[in-house]
Write a structure and sequence with these properties.
heterodimer, A: mainly alpha, about 75% helix, about 0% strand
């Protein structure tokens, strides 16, 4: 039995052997099947089994990631990415759009934590204020206005069996290809080149001045309003145009009131 | 902390976040959930950009994320107005209600069977009442200034 398996293994082409020996491949496979089971038009026991499969796939993906070298930062990173990705999975599988929006807010909180972990303090605050505070609340308003009954048949349906499988497979392939492209980086992590030790490490450079300096927000503002001033102006114009456009669209959806008013004024 | 490992881990998380948003965008039919998934893809890109900026000690990544947030806010404003208008016209948030826009000669999309709704899906998020209700003073209620 084992001899037959070994012969079969030797006959496989090199890339296939490489993929089958890689935990990321199995993690993606299990996670993809789990997400497929969790998505609407559910199977029997799909929720429990799908959650278990997604958790197992996430654990396999996590154990294939290179370690950060410090168990505290490793634990914080794992916790934050588990919140982010768990919230994301719950967003796309929730039947009720209200729950989707709330899970998305949780996922955004995880993202803000990831930003803070990287030292991007302003972005963490801006993500919470703008995304979780404004955009998600607007989503909830629109859900209450447009779908006050809360749940509807089309939330329990997808575009059919084949499109669902194809969608999940596309996403899994995308992550697989991205991880494959990151392979050289991983080899560099496990076998650091000797040249890098002579030059100052990126960590030292970051600590000296720049992104991780103590005056983070002041430096960010200096760069934003110095080098990127034109972009700020353009972004402001874009916001104004979006405001006008949203008002124009909202008026167009309403029944026209202009003619009765004109007739009344005559 | 190993900076290269940090970059690798963040790129992996960003990629998975983008892929989850992609699945939701392709599979779900509620217009609002579809739009949430588009925002999720933007978040995946933002995570990658911040990681790149940290690794190269460059402000460009964070600048780009600031502009991504700005554009996402514009996009959300316009899309919400648009979705409200479409929902008022079609009577539902279903994307399939607008399948008249499909190409000529394409067969219409028909639902095979609508699964039954389960009772636990009907439950809404409910707030637990917190604290005690203050005792009412009838005199005070009578003498309150009417606005």
């Amino acid at each position: 039995m084992t001899a037959a398996l070994q012969r079969l293994w030797a006959q496989l082409p090199g890339p296939a052997q490489h993929a089958l020996a890689c935990p990321t491949f199995w993690g993606l496979l299990l996670g993809g099947i789990g997400v497929w089971m969790l998505l609407p038009a559910r199977l029997r026991y799909g929720r429990v089994l799908g959650s278990l499969l997604v958790a197992a796939g996430g654990a396999l993906l996590a154990c294939d990631l290179p370690l950060l070298g410090n168990w505290t930062s490793q634990g914080v990173f794992w916790l934050l990415s588990a919140i982010t990705l768990g919230g994301a999975v719950a967003t796309i599988v929730s039947r009720s759009p209200v729950y989707s929006a709330i899970w998305f807010a949780l996922s955004l909180l995880g993202t803000a934590g990831l930003f803070l972990f990287q030292g991007a303090q302003f972005l963490a605050g801006a993500t919470i204020v703008v995304y979780a505070g404004a955009i998600v609340v607007t989503f909830l308003f629109v859900i209450m206005l447009a779908q006050p009954e809360g749940h509807s048949p089309y939330d329990r349906l997808t575009w059919g069996g084949l499109p669902k499988i194809l969608g999940v497979a596309t996403a899994g392939l995308l992550v697989g290809i991205l991880t494959f492209m990151l392979g050289p980086t991983k080899r560099e992590i496990s076998h650091p080149p000797q040249v890098a030790s002579a030059a100052p490490s990126p960590q030292a450079r970051a600590a000296a001045a720049g992104i991780n300096s103590s005056q983070h927000v002041a430096n960010l503002g200096r760069h934003l309003f110095g080098e990127h001033l034109v972009s700020v102006e353009i972004a402001g114009t874009l916001l104004l145009i979006a405001l006008v456009g949203a008002v124009a669209i909202a008026i167009q959806g309403k029944p026209r009131l202009a003619q009765p008013i004109e007739e009344a004024l005559r | 902390m190993n900076e290269l490992s940090l970059l690798y881990n963040y790129l992996a998380v960003g990629g998975v976040l983008f892929a989850l948003g992609l699945i939701g965008f392709l599979v779900r039919r509620n217009m609002i959930v579809t739009f949430l998934c588009a925002e999720m893809m933007l978040q995946g890109v933002s995570v990658s950009l911040v990681a790149f900026g940290r690794y190269h000690n460059d402000w460009g990544g964070q600048m780009l994320v600031i502009f991504i947030i700005t554009v996402a806010a514009c996009e959300a404003g316009i899309a919400m107005a648009l979705i409200l208008m479409l929902a008022q016209r079609a009577g539902s948030l279903d994307t399939a209600a607008w399948q008249d826009l499909r190409e000529e000669g394409q067969p219409a999309f028909l639902d095979r069977q609508v699964p039954e709704e389960r009772t636990e899906d009907r439950l809404w998020p409910r707030l637990t009442p917190a604290g005690l209700e203050p005792r009412r003073d009838p005199d005070e209620e009578l003498h309150r200034p009417r606005v």
